[in-house]
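Hey, quick one: can you model this chain's 3D structure?
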Amino acid sequence: MSSLGWILTLNFGYHNKNYETVNLENYSITIPLHSPAEKVFGTSINDIPLWWTEIFEGISNKQGESFTILLGEPVVNQFRLQELEANTKAAFYSIL
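Sure thing. Here's the predicted structure for all 96 residues.
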């Protein structure tokens, strides 16, 4: 956590509805949150449908597991939780 808030950094590509790969460069956003670390962290890995998309399938809170999201009709992506440090770090990597 930085002094400005939690930092979410994404670096991934995704597949559109024709399964063509669309690559994205580093995408970073800083979001200041005024909640206990346990609550923020718990929501970020346990409740993905609440903050990312409701169209979610899989396991997002166990290291090595994966989940799939659908961001509207044209965008499908699958992620694996590669790194997990309780209340500190969760690193999701695109695997689709």
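One thing worth noting: The chain has two helices and eight strands.
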